[in-house]
Every structure is written in C-alpha cells, then in structure tokens.
C-alpha cells in the first residue's frame, strides 16, 4: 500500500500561523463550555470511526490491528474527552494578604503553540498534545511524524465535522528538519510541545531556548525493569513480556534493561526466553499476531545494526536476533524476532543507547544497592518498573531510581491526571492533568489592594 503526503515548508507554516492568528481572537474567548462541547464531539467522532482509524494506524505503523483498536484509537478519544472535561474544572489560585490585599492568578492561553509528535503511537500522542492546548484556548500548529501521517489527516476531517472553527487547529505535514524546524523557529509560535528522540529534542531546545519559548520535551528512554526474587512470579513474567515487546518494543516506556536478582536469574532467563519465542511475529492484520512490522526500513536497519553491535560487544543472543519473512502479503515487510541478550555490562553501547525495538538485555544483581546502581547507570530517566512483594523495599527503591515515572508491580497503568515525563536526557517538563493545562497557559498574578 502506498500514498503521498505533503512535504510542507516554511511558507506553509507561515500560512498556518496567519490562519491561527485570525482564529485566536475568537477561540481564546470562546467559553469553556463551548470548547468542552466541541472537543467532546471530536472524542465521539473518533470513537465512531474506530474501525477506519485503527486500520489506517496499523497500515501506517505496522502494529497489530487489535492493538490499534484496543489501545491507540481509544486513547486518542480519551485524550480529547479528558481535557474537554478538564477545562470545565480548571481553577486558578488566590492568595490573600489578610486585610491588605488579595492576589489572584489568571491563566490565559499562550496564543499559538506548536505540537510535534513521533511515529510510535501516532494518533495517541498527537492528540495527547493537541487536546490540552485547544482546551486551554490556544490555536495549534501541529505536525505528526512524516512516517505515520494518515490518522492525523483523518483527524482533521473529524475536527471539521465536530465544528472546530477554521484556523484553530492547523495540521502541517512534512519532515522534521524542514517543517518541524520551521514551527520551532517561527516567532509567532509561543511554545513547543515535542515528543520524540533525545537527538531532535536537543536541536529543538537549542533553537527555542534563546527565543524564550516555553518547552515541553518528552524524549527517549532506556528503562530498567527491576525484578527482585520475592516478586509475584506470574504477574511479573506476563507483564515483563508486555513491557519488553509491546508495539514491537517501540514504546518509550518499554523496559529494555531487565535487571534480575541473582538467585532467580537462571529461572527467569529460561522462562522468559521460552515465552519470548512463543510470540507470533506475523501480518499485523491477523488476530493472533503478537509482533507486527517495524515502522520503516530505516528503523529496521537501525535495530539490526544495534543487534550486530551487541554481538560485537560480546553479548549472547538467547533468542531472536534475526529478521523474519512472514508468508503472504507481508513477505517483504520489516519484521524482527523479539530478541533477548545477556552477558553485557552496564557501560556497553547496548545498555546505554535506546534501541526502540524488540530487543532487551538481561543483567543480574545481588543487592538493592547494586540494582539501583544498574538502574541509574544511563543518561536517561523516563520510567522504571519494580517487582517485589516487599512494599517497603519497593517504595525505597522507587524514591531512588532516577526516573519520572515508576510502576510498582505493574506497567503502563495510566491515569491521565498524573504527571507524565522524564528526567535527565529523557526530557524537560511534565504532561498530563493540570500540568498540561498549566503548560499551555500563561500565569499572570493580579494584586488588588483592599
Ligand atoms: P524523531 O525525534 O525522529 O521525530 C519526532 C518528531 O519530531 C517527528 O514529527 C519529526 O518529524 C520531528 N522532528 C525531527 N527532527 C526535528 C527537528 N530538528 N525540529 C523539529 N521537529 C523535528 O523521533 P521518532 O523516531 O519519530 O520517535 C521515536 C523517539 O521518540 C524515541 O526516541 C522515543 O523514545 C521517543 N518517544 C518519547 C516519548 C515520551 O513520552 N518520552 C513517547 C514516544 C516516543
């Protein structure tokens, strides 16, 4: 299946900003009830288009169709519904100075904001940025990944049908270095909300920081999955397979470094490898497929190079390590066997660099301190998972792991009200809940003498 998508340039971004400027005058003062009504309608229309959107997402990205239907598209409508209702409850602070004065904070929309998203969870992450920006009264210039643009295009039609006024949301398609940078550089765009690689995040920060733009950067991860001997074995094992390989390992929150207490290391290894080998790598449209296609040839080549590097570094490939050619219509697709590697130390390339594919490493530890040392031994700090039945140990370790998001005895359990984001090279700022509405508004303090 092939298609074409516009390759927009700076001029297109200028046109989008002009349209947004016109729309901002009325959208910024549109009552919250009306913004709620339109955004909620968008959510309803996304739900009504579930089949079409899920198929488009799978065709574009390669993920299993059941996953698009169960996770990606329902989350896109949930994002709109969540921030539509959120803006109805958004309140600002007041600080009383006894009988002298009262301060109150106005949180006003920033103006025109830029939202740039990646290809791994295309509509899910695109809407995660757009929905709070619109709810807060901003006009948006949004760019989906050039690798997976189709559901963003379909969303534009849904927004029109829902009655979102022209110019409020402007979806611009194109590449990162041309279209993306034109958005980041544009003086009329006040804030950039970006999700993607740490490399692109660095570039965006370098351009935007001297212009004093507000920045939210959600970047890469190399997340530890820390498994203590006293864990709930079955729950840990089932969830670790998901946290390693869901969406072909192309989720920023996947636990790509599995750290296992030495006393259970051999048992873990045997069972984990056995379950990994049982994952069906096949046509994403088939119901029993557990591993779909890698998103692109470029990314496929990158993952295969990472596996070669692991071999060269002395890693032992316990399973996987090769590409797969499924029978039928996907015979020429980009499929990779889920891969488990052991024998590599924390400092090697494979345990330092994000692969963003179906590749995990195993390392063992003896003590809690050693587990923490391994967990924190990368430049990244996005998420971590901790498995133990000892709740004191779990909380102790959680407080010391350098990650913005920690799951204890679970993974990817999401409450949209919680702060979402990473520390260290995994990003700056937090998304979700009030954090997102605060990011997309400018706080202004007004002091009234009594
Ligand atoms: P990417 O950085 O290549 O691209 C992401 C988006 O940014 C795309 O729309 C791209 O066109 C655009 N872009 C690229 N360079 C740009 C530039 N110089 N200026 C402006 N825009 C630019 O990332 P990707 O390959 O699409 O996605 C995978 C990466 O995203 C992984 O590193 C993954 O960890 C990360 N990610 C992070 C989170 C999170 O919440 N922290 C979530 C999902 C993905």
List keywords for this structure.
Aldehyde Dehydrogenase, Chain A, domain 2; alpha/beta; binds nicotinamide-adenine-dinucleotide; 450 residues; 6-stranded mixed sheet; 2 domains; 15 helices; single chain; Aldehyde Dehydrogenase, Chain A, domain 1
Briefly characterize the structure:
With 450 residues, the protein is α/β, with parallel strands linked by helices. The chain has 2 domains: 10-219 and 426-449, Aldehyde Dehydrogenase, Chain A, domain 1 (3-Layer(aba) Sandwich), CATH 3.40.605; 224-408, Aldehyde Dehydrogenase, Chain A, domain 2, CATH 3.40.309.10. It has 15 helices and 20 strands.
Structure description:
With 450 residues, this protein is α/β, with parallel strands linked by helices. The protein has two domains: 10-219 and 426-449, Aldehyde Dehydrogenase, Chain A, domain 1, CATH 3.40.605; 224-408, Aldehyde Dehydrogenase, Chain A, domain 2 (3-Layer(aba) Sandwich). Helix content is 42%, strand content 20%. It is built from 15 helices and 20 strands. The strands form five sheets. A seven-stranded mixed sheet has the order 10-13-14-9-8-16-17, with helices on both faces. The chain has a six-stranded mixed sheet with strand order 5-4-3-6-7-19, with helices on both faces. α9 links the parallel β8 (224-227) and β9 (257-261). α2 runs antiparallel to α4 and α3 (50-61) crosses α4. The model has no long low-confidence stretch (mean pLDDT 98). Nicotinamide-adenine-dinucleotide is lined by residues 116-120, 125, 143, 145-146, 175-177, 180-181, 184, 195-197, 200, 203-204, 218-221, 252, 354, 356, 382, 422, 427.
């Amino acid at each position: 299946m092939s298609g074409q998508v516009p390759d927009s340039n700076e001029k297109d971004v200028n046109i989008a900003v002009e349209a947004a400027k016109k729309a901002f005058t009325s959208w910024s003062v549109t009552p919250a009830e009306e913004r709620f009504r339109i955004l909620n309608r968008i959510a309803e229309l996304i739900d009504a288009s579930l089949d079409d959107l899920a198929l488009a997402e799978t065709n574009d990205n390669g993920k299993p169709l059941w996953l698009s239907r169960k996770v990606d598209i329902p989350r896109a409508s949930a994002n709109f519904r969540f921030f539509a209702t959120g803006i109805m409850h958004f309140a600002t602070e007041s600080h009383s100075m006894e009988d002298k004065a009262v301060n109150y904070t106005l949180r006003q929309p920033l103006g025109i904001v830029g939202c740039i998203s990646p290809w791994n969870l295309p509509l899910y992450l695109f809407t995660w940025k757009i929905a709070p920006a619109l709810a807060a009264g901003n006009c948006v210039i949004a760019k989906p990944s050039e690798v997976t643009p189709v559901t963003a295009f379909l969303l534009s039609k849904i927004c029109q049908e829902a009655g979102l006024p022209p110019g409020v949301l402007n979806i611009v398609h194109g590449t990162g270095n041309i279209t993306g940078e034109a958005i980041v550089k544009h003086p009329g765009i006040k804030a950039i909300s970006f999700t993607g690689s740490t490399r692109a995040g660095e570039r965006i920060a370098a351009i935007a920081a001297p212009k004093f733009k507000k920045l939210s950067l959600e970047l890469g991860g190399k997340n530890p999955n820390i498994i203590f001997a006293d864990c709930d074995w079955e729950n840990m094992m089932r969830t670790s397979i998901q946290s390693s390989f869901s969406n072909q390992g192309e989720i920023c929150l996947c636990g790509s470094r599995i750290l296992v207490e030495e006393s259970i290391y051999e048992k873990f290894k045997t069972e984990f490898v056995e379950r990994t080998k049982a994952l069906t790598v096949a046509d994403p449209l088939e119901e029993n497929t557990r591993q779909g296609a890698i998103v692109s040839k470029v990314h496929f080549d990158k993952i295969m190079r990472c596996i070669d590097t692991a071999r060269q570094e002395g890693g032992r490939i316990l399973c996987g390590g090769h590409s797969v050619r499924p029978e039928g219509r996907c015979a020429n697709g980009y499929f990779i066997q889920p891969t488990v590697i052991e024998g590599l130390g924390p400092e090697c390339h494979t345990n330092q660099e994000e692969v963003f594919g179906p590749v995990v490493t195993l390392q063992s530890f003896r003590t809690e301190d050693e587990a923490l040392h391994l967990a924190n031994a990368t430049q990244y700090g996005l998420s971590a998972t901790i498995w133990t039945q000892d709740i004191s140990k779990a909380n102790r370790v959680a407080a010391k792991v350098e990650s913005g998001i920690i799951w204890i005895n679970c993974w990817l359990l999401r409450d949209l009200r919680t702060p979402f984001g990473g520390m260290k090279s995994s990003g700056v700022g937090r998304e979700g809940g009030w954090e997102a509405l605060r990011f997309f508004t400018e706080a202004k303090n007004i002091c009234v003498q009594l």
